[in-house]
Amino acid sequence: MTRKKSDIQQAFSQAKNVRNQMFKSLNSCASYKSFKQFLEKHDLYKQTGSAYTLYPGLNIDQRTAIDQLDKNIEDLIPIKRALLGKNARLEVISLLRECNSYSEFDQIFEQLKDNMSYSFHEDTELECVALDKEINELISGITSRLAKQAREIILSSLRQCNDYSEFQKILEQDEKNKIYSFHSGLPEDKELLEKLDQEILQLIKAKKQELVPLVHIYTDFDGTITAAVGKRAVFSPFFQSLLVGDKEGVAQDYKNTPMKTPEEVQSLFEAKFGKYDEHFDHNQEDVQLLMSPKAVAFFHQVLKSSNVRVSIVTRNRRDYIEAMLRYQGFTELEIAQFNIMDTGYKYNDVYQHLNSQEEKPNLLFILDDDGGDCYQMVGAARVLNYTKSQLIEKNEDPGAFAWDTYPELFLIQQKEVPSVQLDKKEAPFPEEEQLSKEASLPEEEQLSKEALLPEEEQLSKEALLSKETLLRKEEQLRQEAQLRSAQKIIGKIDEALGTLKNNIGEVNQHHFPAAVEEANALLSALETATALYSAALVSGINIRNAEIEFKRSCEGAINDARTVLSRDLGWGDYLTNLLKAIANMVISVFTANPHALFKPAPSLSLEAVEAAAASLEIERNSLQASSAVY
């Protein structure tokens, strides 16, 4: 079947148009990216567009014209590739000659990788090959020069470094500069670079010993190092079996009952859990009473460090904790490095311990599964001028502490740790720091800075700086007064709860099991309410609401326990007086009135509570200043 002349002419026109458009597109390519896109289109064109040359109806002239257009495109491709390759190389060479830093080199190197997509294509001109050789020589020279220059800068910085945070920044810069340290470096420079690296490593080691910060860990024990909260631990059958005179089903005073001999205790640990070695069963019953494996590994690691101190702040007892450490593989030398504070008054313990240290820690790591206790320990540190950047606090659910990640956390945090001076209220404020910097400038430069402002404007600026500094210091003093007040309040409430604990311990638990259970539930509820109240006092947030909620919680807990405890133990007046004493402690603080507002009913069993309330002495002016912001 013969084709119509009009169809053949239309096919010929379409074939020419496609090729002319392709040639125009190729000729306008100005980058490797557009050139690559063209080649993809060209491959598709060769598969489809060339079909026009196969029409049997095309005459010789038409076929010759189509072939010529195809040849024009094929001839232009290598010319365009060579031209783009040459221009790209010349641009890279220009950038490399001006390169003076690793960051600039990074950018050039990325651009170079993009431009090299077609750089060694089989039909690349010899001129491009020569340019590639020049680029490689420039890269070798630049990397060697920059590597040498970077090391000399780092060495100079290390020699002048006297601050740990600055030291950490230098280490980061050193690591960054090594990215291309030996990338195609000149062979004659490699030995010099290795020598400079050795010098840097030796200086880093010396600076670490000189500048490493002192870290102090304050951690709770039950629920934090172990996965069992305190009450579950100390009233567990296993814990009770370690006490002298233990009887099945009878809970003794966990704190004051003598513990069996160390040898007996270790035997009981092994009888209960088996030998603690590589074959230990970490899934057995009651294993939550023990230290978690990750916590064990953590403390073995940090005790080897000369710059880390560890304090366990707990309501549990020292001899039990030491026995567990011994059972879980800690040596006597390691156990001696644990500072165990077991009074139960965590604010006081941390405050007194920190305040007594001759060598002040730069960084504090505070861990507790109880939010109130955690806030108390943090509050003690804040009173002693530790800032947020010097504190790491972890308040997690029991058993949820990620001990295996904490050494890394130390290293990250230490990068920003300033030194601490407890005899000073705070590090210089920004205004003071700026004045200090200006005072250190040459006299001529100071004069030039002063000349920028009219005399009146200078005076106004100085007055503003002075006022802002004063306001900052006043705010700091107010916060310190608030924290000291919180310490006194919670201390007195803890004394009242201590009396309740002692009273519970004196009850015949065999004859009044229901009453003992009710009393322990009451104690737990009051301790929880106190912890939440303590957290609000220390943080200074919503104190009024916290006061109301604290009193409501205490009243509800005491009233819930009143029926059983009044019937079985005759504690009716005692509970009434306990509630009134707690209310007096709170109200006396916020009214600046040291006198009790409620008169307790006579009760000899409440003498300790009354004494605690009467001894709550806080100066009126300090309290008024603190309560003015609530």
Can you characterise this structure?
The chain contains 24 helices and 5 strands. With 630 residues, the protein is mainly α. It has 4 domains: 5-124; 136-211, no CATH class; 215-414, Rossmann fold; 475-627, no CATH class. Strands 3-2-1-4-5 form a 5-stranded parallel β-sheet, sandwiched between helices. Helix 15 links the parallel strand 4 (363-367) and strand 5. Helix 14 runs parallel beside helix 15, helix 15 crosses helix 19 and helix 21 runs antiparallel to helix 22. The chain starts with a helix and ends with a helix. Residues 117-123, 179-184, 411-459, 589-600 and 602-630 have low confidence and may be disordered.
Blueprint (SSEs and pairs):
Elements: H1 5-27, H2 32-48, H3 60-98, H4 102-115, H5 126-160, H6 164-177, H7 187-211, E1 215-219, H8 230-234, H9 237-241, H10 262-273, H11 293-302, E2 308-313, H12 318-327, H13 332-336, E3 338-341, H14 346-355, E4 363-367, H15 371-383, E5 391-394, H16 406-414, H17 430-439, H18 443-450, H19 455-506, H20 513-539, H21 543-569, H22 572-590, H23 607-614, H24 620-627
Parallel strand pairs: 1-2, 1-4, 2-3, 4-5
